[in-house]
Amino acid sequence: MRFLIRFAVALLVVAGFASPAAASGGHQRFSALVFSKTAAFRHDSIPAGVAAIKQLGARNHFRVDATEDAAAFTDRNLARYDVVVWLSTTGDVLNDAQQAAFERYIRHGGGYAGIHAASDTEYDWAWYGGLVGAYFRDHPGGVNDQFQTATLHVLGHDTAATKPLPRRWVREEEWYNFRTNPWGTVRVLTEVDERTYDPRGYSEPEGSPGMGRHHPISWCHRYDGGRAFYTAMGHKAEYYNDPLLLAHILGGLKMAAGAASFNC
């Protein structure tokens, strides 16, 4: 019964009828820039992710612009946005001047939201590694068998990103393993139960065993003056039709933009 109630709430949140901002006395308007440039592996779900975030904006009264042009990372342009969404970016996507502009943006109170391969980005930019919280290491399986159904544990419902979710959330995903475990430096919002799937990764030479009992998948934290939210979910295009995932992303965007309480 609780799952059905939360699923219904997620539908309402995504549709814009019961957003956390509305529940607090009125829609909170903000602006988001979706950045999806890739310099390594490119996810074919990027167009679906951009379209889904634009729909969330239209239904929940916030502006969404999307670009793959790194030239958008200037002080003047970034100042137009409350949150910058890195959607399945990969590789080195910004030059030194663009990196410096984004660092200034965050230090002046800007918001960052990373989705899926945002953690597979800018490995040589240590500041970004701290912002996203952890770098991608590998995922289970190979090219064609990496998707497994597993159980997520939702750790508290006092944030906009977790309020619509069931306590135990069963879904299919490409479950990322990370180079480091961010527990202790971030607030973990969801963790995947490695007992419910095979977490062994493909990385060389011998692969990785997973991450153990506490395997974070989404989290948030304050970083260098700004707000950061990250979720490793969102590999397949079809996932962006899932009301629960969309409600999770919507809540994370609102938190990172400062339009919902940042209990991180």
From TrEMBL:
<feature type="signal peptide">
    <location>
        <begin position="1"/>
        <end position="23"/>
    </location>
</feature>
<dbReference type="InterPro" id="IPR029062">
    <property type="entry name" value="Class_I_gatase-like"/>
</dbReference>
<keyword id="KW-0315">Glutamine amidotransferase</keyword>
<keyword id="KW-0808">Transferase</keyword>
<dbReference type="GO" id="GO:0016740">
    <property type="term" value="F:transferase activity"/>
</dbReference>
<protein>
    <submittedName>
        <fullName>Type 1 glutamine amidotransferase (GATase1)</fullName>
    </submittedName>
</protein>
<keyword id="KW-0732">Signal</keyword>
<dbReference type="InterPro" id="IPR029010">
    <property type="entry name" value="ThuA-like"/>
</dbReference>
<feature type="domain" description="ThuA-like">
    <location>
        <begin position="32"/>
        <end position="254"/>
    </location>
</feature>
<dbReference type="Pfam" id="PF06283">
    <property type="entry name" value="ThuA"/>
</dbReference>
